[in-house]
Specification:
alpha/beta, D-Maltodextrin-Binding Protein, domain 2, 2 domains, 29% strand, binds phosphoribosyl ATP, binds magnesium ion
Length: 213
C-alpha cells in the first residue's frame, strides 16, 4: 500500500488533476465526506487528509510514504524528507506587508527596530537577518493581517496570491521574500522499501507536471 498525505483545500484541489494525469482517481470528495482516509481507483494507493502543516510530520515519521506540502511549510521547519519534485501548484509568494502609509523603507533605513507579526518566524528571522534589519518577531497562528491594524506590529510576513486579502485590510506589500509552490516530499525509508511503485508514481507526477507547463 502506498499512502499519500494531502491537506484539504487548495493543495487537494490542485493535486487532483496531477493524480488524474498519473492515472489515479480519488474516490471521495473531502468537502462532502468526513473520512480522513480515502481510497483511489488504484487499490494499492490511498490518500490521508491532514493539516497542511502536519504533512511533513506524517511523511517524516512514515505515517505516509509521500505527501504534498507548500515550500513555506517545508522551509519553516521540516527535516528527514526527500523533496523530490516541484509540482508547481498552490503558487503564491511570501512577502512583507505594512499598513498603508507606514514608512517601511524609512524605518529600515534608519535602523529602527521593526515589530513583525508572522506564522513564519524562522523564515522571517532569516530574511531580516540577511538584510541586517533588527526585528522583534511576534508569533501568530492566523489572521496576520490584523496585527498592523491593531498596533500589535508594524509589519507582517505572510503568503500573498491575488493580493485581495491585503487590499481588503488596507495593507500593502512592500517586499517579496520568496516565491512559493508545493512540493512532493517522500519518506527516505519508504523510497528504499517500496522503490518500484514509488518511483513509478513520482515519474508519473513528473510527467503530469511537465505536460502542464
Ligand atoms: O488552513 P489551515 O490552518 O489548515 O492550514 P493552511 O492555512 O496552512 O492551509 P491552506 O490550505 O490554506 O494552505 C496550504 C498551502 O497553500 C500553503 O502552505 C501555501 O503553500 C499554499 N498557498 C497558496 C496559500 C495561498 N496560496 C494563500 N493565498 N496559503 C495561504 N494563502 C492565504 C494567505 O495566508 C492569506 O491569508 O490566503 C490569503 C491571501 O490570499 P490572497 O489571494 O488574498 O492574496
Ligand atoms: Mg488556510
Amino acid at each position: 500500500m502506498i499512502t499519500l498525505a494531502l491537506s484539504k483545500g487548495r493543495i487537494f484541489d490542485d493535486s487532483l488533476p496531477l493524480l488524474r494525469a498519473a492515472g489515479i482517481e480519488v474516490l471521495e470528495d473531502p468537502e462532502k465526506s468526513r473520512k480522513l482516509i480515502i481510497g483511489t481507483s488504484r487499490p494499492d494507493v490511498r490518500v490521508v487528509l491532514v493539516r497542511a502543516s502536519d504533512v511533513p510530520t506524517y511523511v517524516q515519521h512514515g505515517g505516509a510514504d509521500l505527501g504534498v506540502a507548500g515550500l513555506d511549510v517545508l522551509l519553516e521547519g521540516s527535516e528527514g524528507l526527500y523533496r523530490v519534485l516541484d509540482l508547481n501548484i498552490a503558487r503564491c509568494r511570501l512577502s512583507v506587508a505594512v499598513r498603508e502609509g507606514f514608512d517601511y523603507a524609512g524605518t529600515v533605513k534608519q535602523g529602527s527596530r521593526l515589530k513583525v507579526a508572522t506564522k513564519y518566524t524562522h523564515l522571517a528571522r532569516q530574511f531580516f537577518a540577511s538584510k541586517g534589519v533588527h526585528v522583534d518577531l511576534i508569533k501568530l497562528y492566523g489572521s496576520m493581517e490584523l496585527a498592523p491594524l491593531t498596533g500589535l506590529a508594524d509589519a507582517i510576513v505572510d503568503l500573498v496570491s491575488t493580493g485581495s486579502t491585503l487590499k481588503a485590510n488596507h495593507l500593502v506589500e512592500v517586499e517579496k521574500i520568496m516565491d512559493i509552490s508545493s512540493r512532493l516530499v517522500v519518506n527516505p525509508a519508504a523510497l528504499k522499501l517500496k522503490r518500484e511503485p514509488l518511483r513509478a508514481l513520482i515519474d508519473a507526477f513528473e510527467a503530469a507536471v511537465k505536460a502542464r507547463s
